[in-house]
């Protein structure tokens, strides 16, 4: 992502209810888990396996509007970035706890 023409779209971090509502969906939780484990922005297509692109777009929009992720368009590719610092500033420890539980559940499968 070294392109000089980069577009970033993000929203303020929502209330705890808004963030938890966005994370309660298993698809969105898996997207956040993958982003957290990657530790860097990921191409949106790598965040889902079993859903179609339009459904994935809806889920990514929900996460973005809750302030959990941001969309980055660079070099004609769309990436998602987990806004860990921003969410932690507003709701300390939430992402660590939720992603940790999701990782333990995933490893148990």
UniProtKB/TrEMBL annotation:
<dbReference type="Pfam" id="PF12840">
    <property type="entry name" value="HTH_20"/>
</dbReference>
<dbReference type="InterPro" id="IPR036390">
    <property type="entry name" value="WH_DNA-bd_sf"/>
</dbReference>
<dbReference type="GO" id="GO:0003700">
    <property type="term" value="F:DNA-binding transcription factor activity"/>
</dbReference>
<feature type="domain" description="HTH arsR-type">
    <location>
        <begin position="8"/>
        <end position="102"/>
    </location>
</feature>
<dbReference type="InterPro" id="IPR036388">
    <property type="entry name" value="WH-like_DNA-bd_sf"/>
</dbReference>
<protein>
    <submittedName>
        <fullName>ArsR family transcriptional regulator</fullName>
    </submittedName>
</protein>
<dbReference type="InterPro" id="IPR011991">
    <property type="entry name" value="ArsR-like_HTH"/>
</dbReference>
<dbReference type="InterPro" id="IPR001845">
    <property type="entry name" value="HTH_ArsR_DNA-bd_dom"/>
</dbReference>
């Amino acid at each position: 992502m070294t392109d000089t023409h980069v577009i970033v779209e993000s929203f303020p971090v929502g209330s705890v209810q808004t963030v938890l509502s966005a994370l309660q969906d298993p698809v969105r939780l898996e997207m956040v888990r993958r982003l957290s484990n990657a530790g860097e922005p990921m191409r949106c297509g790598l965040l889902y396996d079993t859903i179609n692109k339009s459904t994935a777009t809806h889920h990514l929009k929900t996460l973005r509007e809750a302030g959990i992720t941001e969309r980055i368009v660079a070099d004609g590719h769309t990436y998602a970035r987990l806004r860990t610092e921003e969410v932690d500033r507003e709701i300390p420890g939430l992402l660590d706890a939720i992603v940790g539980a999701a990782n333990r559940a995933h490893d148990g499968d």
